[in-house]
Amino acid sequence: MSKTITIDGKEIPYEDGQTIMDAAIAADIYIPHLCHDPDYEPHGSCKLCTVNVNGRNCSACTFPALEGQNIINQSADLEQDRKRITQMLFVEGNHFCPSCEKTGDCQLQGVAYYLDMHDNHFPHFFANREMDASHPDILIDHNRCIFCNLCVRASQEKDHKNVFAISGRGMNKHLIVNSITGKLKDSNIHINDHAAHICPTGAILIKRTGYKVPIGERTYDKQKIDAVALAKENKHHGR
Amino acid sequence: MAAKLRVATTSLAGCFGCHMSFLDIDERMIELAQHVEFDRSPITDIEHCGPCDIGLIEGGVCNSENVHTLREFRKNCKVLVAVGACAINGGLPAMRNHFKLEDCLNESYIDGMGLENAQIPSDPELPLLLDNVHPIHEIVKVDYYMPGCPPSGDVFWSFLSDIIAGREPSLPYELVHFD
Ligand code: SF4
Ligand code: SF4
Ligand code: FES
């Protein structure tokens, strides 16, 4: 008999070595997430996937699934926490969606829409962040980076290049590029690298592709992020 | 028939796009007119708003006059609504927050291309610019938010229909956009 955990009263199977997020995705249960992608090592930084496990809050993407877990994923409290976390991500960076090429395809927006977030609640930092447009094909707008580490992981784990790293802490945290000038043009990133395409926000963009699909006809204009994420991340959908 | 709701609207640091979008409710305006009457708004051209049920604010806060207008709205309106990206997060005008105010003024009035008799305007009648453009919730308490740049006519209609019917306003998924 397979082992099981319970999410919102529903019993689902899991295998040893799976996290709560892995088991949930396999069972077609959406737990909001931004820094997680099943193709990469979990990072546990965005905390959007916070669930309540036997009375304690944990990150579903890093917490192992274990026999006897009673997990709450959907509750008013968790929804509120997740909304506040998302609002913090918005005020920490500079998210001017109307001027962003990624709008409509952006996972940060997708999550915000899913959580029925209409405002940013907190005072804005309006931090001064740079843009690196030096590379002929790829652009980084640091104003939109949420430090999910996905480009770092993609570059290391799939491209085997190590182009990106996150440096500094707290307010001073920033994404750095591994090149002699710190500019993308002097790194060995290539337009076909996984790292160039993984960014969940509009921080890393491919040049000259921005408006191929018009605003209003983009991913989250049409579909909620729970359906989009499960369809993409759950391998059995492809079978 | 119940007394009409009194609505005031204004644009602070915004482009009037949200007001234009409001007009996109088209012929529903006639039905709306049976339930609301306008206090201060571009339609009435009244200078100061009086006691109102609903205040719709477009645009963020970029100068001293915006602060006064916003506070006057908050004092007079039972329900204050931040309309559109600029009111909610500063929007595109807040993109100037990355630059020093002095540099912005120099670029516009001194160093800009094709300027004759270049000078920074300093008439005492002009409101003083703030260092930063602020979303309105950083200055006053806001009751509701209508996201979008601008929110569509349907957002205005959905929100006002809810208020008129005495329902808690809520927006269906398809109407929520940040762009
Ligand atoms: S990255 Fe997403 S949230 Fe940020 S400005 Fe672009 S569309 Fe908006
Ligand atoms: S640039 Fe994008 S992928 Fe990289 S850490 Fe920032 S948000 Fe994540
Ligand atoms: S998805 Fe789990 S912490 Fe980001």
Automatic annotation (TrEMBL), chain A:
Assigned keywords, A-Z: 4Fe-4S, Iron, Iron-sulfur, Metal-binding
4Fe-4S His(Cys)3-ligated-type domain residues: 77-116
Residue intervals of the 2Fe-2S ferredoxin-type domain: 1-77
Gene Ontology molecular function: 4 iron, 4 sulfur cluster binding; metal ion binding; oxidoreductase activity
Entry-linked Gene3D superfamilies: 3.10.20.740, 3.30.70.20
InterPro entries documented for this protein: 2Fe-2S_ferredoxin-like_sf, 2Fe-2S_ferredoxin-type, NAD-red_Hydgase_HoxS_gsu, NADH_UbQ_OxRdtase_Gsu_4Fe4S-bd
UniProt family annotation: Belongs to the complex I 75 kDa subunit family.
Record's protein name: NADP oxidoreductase
Organism: Methyloprofundus sedimenti
Lineage: Bacteria, Pseudomonadati, Pseudomonadota, Gammaproteobacteria, Methylococcales
From TrEMBL, chain B:
GO molecular function: 3 iron, 4 sulfur cluster binding; oxidoreductase activity
Pfam families per record: Oxidored_q6 (PF01058)
InterPro entries: Hydrogenase_assoc-protein, NADH_UbQ_OxRdtase-like_20kDa, NiFe_Hase_small_N_sf
Cofactor: [3Fe-4S] cluster
Keyword terms of this UniProt record: 3Fe-4S, Iron, Iron-sulfur, Metal-binding, Oxidoreductase
Residues covered by the NADH:ubiquinone oxidoreductase-like 20kDa subunit domain: 15-161
PANTHER family reported for this sequence: COENZYME F420-REDUCING HYDROGENASE, GAMMA SUBUNIT (PTHR42845), HYDROGENASE SMALL SUBUNIT (PTHR42845:SF1)
Full protein name: NADP oxidoreductase
Organism: Methyloprofundus sedimenti
Lineage: Bacteria, Pseudomonadati, Pseudomonadota, Gammaproteobacteria, Methylococcales
